[in-house]
Amino acid sequence: MENFRDIEAIHRFVKENKYTMLYFSLNNCGVCEDLLPKIKTLLKLYPQINCGKIEADKYPETKGAFSIFTFPCILFYIDGKELIREARFISINQLEEKLKRYFML
For site-directed labelling of 4, which of 26, 54, 58, 89 has its Cα 20 to 30 A away? Predict the structure, then answer.
């Protein structure tokens, strides 16, 4: 999982990879900390997904650029197009089902 610090690098990452997941979190967010290992485990099932992590409290401009209003937040892209957006109370099972649908096409 790659850590990002600026908007341009994030946009490049999304554009350059076919399958991209962005994980937005805050430093003092217990839910964010609990969810991260689960996301990493899920990503092992989908090695073709490139994942980036953004600590939004350190880089607040990313919140506005990606319309993030609550944390944690996951954005999933295929070929640069956002297809999944999950925030706050994220169910790993539901997220996995959504990902499965795209990879079964």
Answer: 89
